[in-house]
Amino acid sequence: MRGTVWAAANQLGVVAGTPAELQSALLSGAPRILRLGQPGQDPDAVGELARILREFGHVRVVVEEAVDSGPPAREPVDLADPAAVCAAEPLGITAAYERDGGAYGGLRAAWLRAGQALIRDQEPAERALALLAALPASAGPHLRAALTELAAGARWSVVWTRGPDDTEPPPPGPVAALTVSAGRLLVAGRDGAVRHLDAEPHTAPLPGRVRAMAATGDGTLLLLDERGRLHTRGPGSRLTAAVTATLAAHPGTALAATGDIVLVGDRVGSVHAFGPAGLHQAAPHSGRVTALSATGTLVCSGGADGAVCLWTPGNAPLPDPLTERACPVVALHAAPTARGPAVAVAWEDGLVELHHPGPGEVRAFRPGPAIRAVAVLQEGQLALATDEMLVALRPA
Question: Mind spelling out the 3-state secondary structure of the chain?
């Protein structure tokens, strides 16, 4: 069933691993058409998923008769052999791992964690990279080494990972937000507990779940909760107090900070920059602002409209977006490089891109699960967080 659900989710541009998660992901959008029954999909799973979604009533399901024009059935794949697994037909591997509960040195757990990305058409090296990023900490060194060798042709390499089964350093838990302060990665859990990567939490939990995090130039931590209210940890200032009061009356949807400027997005597509020079505003998006980041004087905003826009407070936003897709932006982070700002963007369908300055300098990655937060680290590395893992990648 998982492979059928993942294929349906990829077709619809959402992230889901179960029929219930697929229904939940579809609730926020308009009714759509879903075509099931492509070659390689299990007919029983197709029929069951079609029945569930038809009862749900928010999607029109069309079951097509698959035409078997592929090669004859192959011998069973060795599920402990990473090279064979990465080169095999992915829906078949998914079904085999669902039937067989063996650990296979951690390969099965990694496949079932990253599976929605793995069933897409791609080279074996890209599958090996996604599996390497999803490996549990208990995976054997031989498996990690084998996947690293197989992933040598991918556009990324894995620098480090953290997951729920890590014991040392402490696991980050479900991550709600990432940012970089004084050159170090800060990780915020859903409850508002904030830590450096390899340290214990050093802030108290919030009364509500965290939506976004930012750090000001004086070291004050800013946390936006799910109701759009601002909470501060650290020295604070009259400016942060004023922004806190403003958001108590007019909740925000996104948050960022740069130097002594605090930026807030709202549900109608506007970005507000609060600073010593007063308030500057722009309206670059159609619909909710879903993510913000800033570096120097450059502000990056992402929206439910799928666009990433650039703005310098006091001026009009640039007329053309940095990038745009037919899918809401869920996370953003910008950081300076020697050639100009680099921008990491994550979308609701599980894709993350790192945009380097210069034409054609874009690298993409899909971890499989939904992405909750991103950050650009030193030397152009990319950190991304899902509900189960935190991964750092280096451009190859």
Answer: CHHHHHHHHHHHCCCCCCHHHHHHHHHCCCCEEEEECCCCCCHHHHHHHHHHHHHHCCEEEEECCCCCCCCCCCCCCCCCCHHHHHHCCHHHHHHHHHHCCCCHHHHHHHHHHHHHHHCCCCCHHHHHHHHHHHCCCCCCHHHHHHHHHHHHHCCEEEEEEECCCCCCCCCCCCEEEEEEECCEEEEEECCCCEEECCCCCCCCCCCCCEEEEEECCCCCEEEEECCCCEEEECCCCHHHHHHHHHHHHCCCCEEEEECCEEEEECCCCCEEEEECCEEEEECCCCCCEEEEEEECCEEEEEECCCEEEEECCCCCCCCCCCEECCCCEEEEEEECCCCCCEEEEEECCCCEEEECCCCCCEEEECCCCCCCEEEECHHHCEEEECCCCEEEEEEC
Query: Tokens in use for 27?
Result: 């609730």
Q: Which fold has domain 175-395?
A: Methylamine Dehydrogenase; Chain H (2.130.10)
Whether the CB-CB separation of 279 and 273 falls below 8 Å is answered with yes
Token pair of 396, please?
Answer: 């190859």
Predicted structure pTM score: 0.88
Each residue of 202-258: pLDDT tens digit? Answer: 666 677 789 999 999 888 899 999 999 999 988 889 999 999 999 999 999 999 999
**Cβ atoms < 10 Å from Cβ of 39:** 12
Which one, of 323, 331, 362, lies nearest residue 348 by Cα? 331
The full set of domain ranges for the chain reads: 2-155, 175-395
- The answer to which of 31-45, 271-285, 292-306 has the lowest mean pLDDT is 31-45
49 CB-side CA count, 13 A: 32
Which of these, 6, 226, 211, lies nearest to 120 by C-alpha position? 6
pLDDT grade for 138, boundaries at 50, 70 and 90: confident
Residue 60 phi/psi, 5-degree rounding, is -90, 120
Averaged over 305-326, what is the pLDDT? 91
For residue 297, the Cα-to-chain-centroid distance in whole angstroms is 25
Kindly state the tokens that stand for 286.
Answer: 């159609």
